Amino acid sequence: MSDPADTRPWQPPNLSGRAVRREEPAVPDPDALRREAFEAGYAEGVAAGRARGEAMVAELSALWQAMARPLAEQEETLLRDLTGIALDAAEAILRRELVRGADVEAVLSEALGQLGDIEGLLEVELHPADVELVNDLLGRRGEPAQWRLKENPSLARGGLRLHTPVSYIDASLEQALEELFARLRREAEHGLQEPS
Fold it and tell me: Residue 130: which of 164, 147, 97, 107 has the closest Cα?
């Protein structure tokens, strides 16, 4: 048997009469092949590592943003809730103190001043406990010739609502507190929206 390394591919005989020069197949340099393979593998590995690193960075960035979003929302919710609790507590204290020290005479005087000249019937809506006092006040002041007092137990003492045929004034403690706390809430919410 012959050695396979000594074999050559069969070539048909040259019939042209000219000498044909046979080219031996070039044997690649093993070191060059190794170097080429190493560089190709290295470049492929660097590209794969870079792609994986970028994917990890993007994943970690998305994870960080997802974690930060609920914290910011919780902080805003907590601030809003604490503001609401503080305002509710202040409202309860103010209501108690205003009811204790309600000066229906001052409230009535200011409300009548806002009405100006009154023509027609004046209807005064007020707490039942204030009816006698307001009736006396209106009689002493010589206010409109005609007035009617309407008891409303849902109104806090010291507050009232005035109705005439052409105007209406809500001088109730509830309305005053509602306006005050609406303003405080707007200011508190505006403060929450301010950049830190």
Answer: 107
pLDDT digits (tens, 9 = 90+) for 131-154: 888 888 888 776 656 888 999 998
C-alpha to C-alpha distance for 144 and 112, rounded to whole angstroms: 10
Burial of 112 (0-12, 13-18, 19+ CB in 10 A): buried
CA dist., res. 118 & res. 112, Å (int):
9
pLDDT one-digit tens code per residue, 176-193: 778 877 887 787 777 656
In this structure, which amino acid lies at residue 96?
Answer: R
- Strands, sheet with 147-151, edge to edge from the N-terminal-most edge strand: 147-151, 122-126, 160-163, 168-171
Instruction: Give pTM, 2 decimals.
Output: 0.47
What's the one-letter identity of residue 160? L
Please identify which residue in the block is written with the tokens 């993007």: 58
Q: Which residue in this structure is represented by tokens 């202040």?
A: 90
* Whole-number Å distance between alpha carbons of 157 and 99: 6
Q: What is the CB neighbour count within 10 angstroms for residue 160?
A: 25
